[in-house]
Amino acid sequence: MTPGALIARAIQKERQRADLSLSALASRAGLAKSTLSQLEAGQGNPSVETLWSIASALDIPFSFLFETAEPELTLIRAQEGLSLSSELSEFSATLLANCPPASRRDLYRVHLRKGSVRQSEPHPQGTLEHALVSSGRVRLGPLDATEDLGPGDYFRYPADISHSYQSLSDHAVLLLVMESPR
């Protein structure tokens, strides 16, 4: 299944589960109804901001928009995986493992480039982020409590408040685990 078809199926499934019309979800997500309609039809190339808006409006973890049945073994090479880019900053994230049905935990490999800051709106109440820097140097965390991290540094912080990610080196890679309560 193509990424567009996967996203289309998930948006429609979650919208129907929430018993929302296209218009109601578009309004909650701050999107045009035509944009949402195109995404549900498997058309368009949504940005990470658009998909975050939809997930937030549906009150679901971001990874629910990419749910598939997971094989027992999963190998994702460094340059593989479905990457989503930001329209607002030099930020891209690749979902490495979505959450099993009994819990809410998502794992991302995040690439950041120097020169821009990715600001994230609050995620659902109780969400935590666990960040482990793989390479480069980054500044991240809640807007009023960012920390500078280097390779091997780990930082856990609340993600149900506004937070940001910024590369302090030309390129940085970090592993990001989003943990949400059920």
TrEMBL record:
InterPro entries: Cro/C1-type_HTH, Cupin_2, Lambda_DNA-bd_dom_sf, RmlC-like_jellyroll, RmlC_Cupin_sf, TransReg_Diox_bact_type. One of its GO terms (molecular function) is DNA-binding transcription factor activity. Residues 11-65 form the HTH cro/C1-type domain. Keywords: DNA-binding. The keyword DNA-binding applies. PANTHER family: HTH-TYPE TRANSCRIPTIONAL REGULATOR, METHYLPHOSPHONATE SYNTHASE. This is Helix-turn-helix domain-containing protein.
